[in-house]
Write a structure and sequence with these properties.
nine-stranded mixed β-sheet; two-stranded antiparallel ribbon; Alpha-Beta Plaits; 11 strands; single chain
């Protein structure tokens, strides 16, 4: 059987690399005596598949992994057994059973949302942010494998919202993570610079979640299972 797991990576673990996160979860599964399945061969490993990589320097409100089990276990029992052995900053939020034939996380997740906490913005900057979605092009220097190339983020920007507070503002943005363009959080920071937001104004950045975008609608990987 397979479980799909939603978990939180707190700010204190923002500098944990993807491979270290994988090893941390594997050690917790062993401590919790979860009946995980192993691959075959000379070097068997836990059949655990993380979702899209959480960039180093970011924390995540809702991250995901799929796990194959050798014995039946409810999602509630899994959460109950795993959380007590996880390190501080890491918490399982929920787990659900998924069909053995369900597509992998990597094949269904095609969007993400990021939040940027910034020092209080003036009206001129807020107006520039509001106009981002109306620009014909959103050109930045690529930060991916094809560095030093100009990249147009426009096709991969889906929605921007803003929440204002007394001392700070939060910009939340939904973007594509594959086709038509893979939008990185550091490219968004550069884009915000064109609106007048400086690096000194940036207080915090985190990923709010990964999504499966289907015909303009955003579903979490947990909700996506119900569409199968």
């Amino acid at each position: 059987m397979r479980l799909r797991v939603e978990y939180r990576v707190g700010p204190e673990l923002r500098f944990l690399a993807n491979l270290d996160m994988l090893h941390t979860i594997e050690r917790a599964l062993r401590r919790a005596r979860i009946p995980y399945a192993l691959s075959e061969g000379f070097n068997p490993h836990i059949k655990l598949s993380l979702g899209t990589v959480l960039p180093v320097g970011l924390w995540g409100e809702r991250e995901y992994f799929d796990l194959e089990l050798m014995a039946d276990m409810s999602g509630e029992e899994f959460v109950k057994r795993l959380n007590p052995v996880l390190p501080s900053g890491l918490m399982v939020l929920q787990a659900v059973n998924i069909p053995p034939s369900a597509p992998s996380l990597m094949s269904v997740v095609n969007a993400a949302s990021y939040a940027f906490k910034v020092k209080k913005l003036d009206e001129a900057v807020l107006d520039q942010l509001q106009m981002l979605m109306h620009r014909p092009e959103l050109l930045v220097a690529s930060r991916g494998k094809k560095k030093n190339r100009i990249k147009d983020l426009k096709p991969g920007l889906y929605k921007i919202t803003m929440m204002t507070h007394d001392q700070f503002d939060i910009i939340k943005i939904w973007v594509s993570t594959g086709q038509p363009v893979n939008v990185r959080f550091d490219e968004l920071i550069e884009l915000f610079g064109t609106c007048g937001i400086t690096a000194e104004q940036l207080v915090d950045v985190w990923r709010c979640g990964n999504f499966c975008r289907v015909e303009e609608q955003f579903y979490t990987p947990m909700e996506q299972v119900k569409l199968l």
